[in-house]
Amino acid sequence: MTESLFPDHLSLDPGWTKDTIAVQAGRPARAAGAPINPPIILSSTYVHDASLEYGRDGNAGWGALEAALGALDGGRAVTFASGLAAATAIAALVPAGGTVVLPSVAYYGVRNVFDRLRSLGRLQLRIVAADDTDAVLGASEGADMVWVESIANPLIVVADVPAIAAGARQRGAITVVDATFATPLRQRPLDLGADIVLHSATKLIGGHSDLLLGAVVCKDPAHAELLVTYRHDHGSIPGALEAFLALRGLRTLAVRLDRAEASAAELARRLASHPHVARVNYPGLPGDPQHERASRVLPNGSGSMLSLEIDGTAEQTEAFLARLRLLTHATSLGGVESLIERRARYAGDAAIVGPTLCRLSVGIENVEDLWADLDGAMRAVLG
Ligand SMILES: *Cc1c(COP(=O)(O)O)cnc(C)c1O
Fold first, then answer.
1. pTM of the predicted model as reported, rounded to 2 decimal places
2. Residue 267 contacts residue 362 (beta carbons within 8 Å)
């Protein structure tokens, strides 16, 4: 296995914090003359006879990234071509005819994957509000898998992962946590009782909006083995360059997230009392309905995502977004540059959010520049 090229994770100091592990894990073994970074191996085939014979079997770059992500989340990591490729592989763990509990507000692509499997007769779905822990647990009776997002799109709702994971386990279901917004630095779902963690490394882990990649981290090595086989057989493998870039991004995750999160908290505080803002959703805000739960399950910070509702019309909101010069009106999140988008432009989100709701992914620009851009554009359009 390619992982054995990166034995370093075995020698990580157990006293190191996650910030340090993010920098140090997944490096080649330390030896005189050895490179400190893993190589980018661009080869579709390898000389016979070895366990690594073809590009779908493995790649030294995936091995390095998996060693690092596994060390951070405390499990065995398997990387995929994208977050959705990873989600599709996890869905394949559900037995034929099985039942999955899915949040009513989930990443639309994940919802699509499960809706399609349901329409093909492969599995049953039970849709519940993820912030209603009793409803999630009620629905998990007799289910095979409970799927939650630790911090969910686009209303920035926080799930009670420890309570859900414990309750689901009692009822015989495994818990999958999409931890894309929280990252391993803000929550380790496997420590809180979950079985499987999903990261779209396209977002905060990669951090520079220049790649797509997904990762699954499993508590049970048997799940990881099934996912490795699935990846091999379905060809949903990450690119070698993407794996290298994701690991390079991971090295700076701690400083990027600290900065973006501090700015998100400050912007949320200021937006909450802005005359042209009707509502702000950010779990780190003391008045937010999610605040108490967030302080319990995300004690180190609520992340870099917030959403706001403009006190105006959909047209005024579009005009506000068009006027921004620093923030970009674009989808996706977690990069160094701040992005904002009006979510009701998606049919799926129009049903659950108001017409003026904007999701804001805070980057690492200076917070005063971000504020001047947001405040200036709102005043220019709304007076
Ligand atoms: C982006 C995203 C995904 C899908 O990941 P891709 O890398 O875009 O395929 C899944 N879950 C969440 C929460 C996301 O933000």
1. 0.97
2. yes
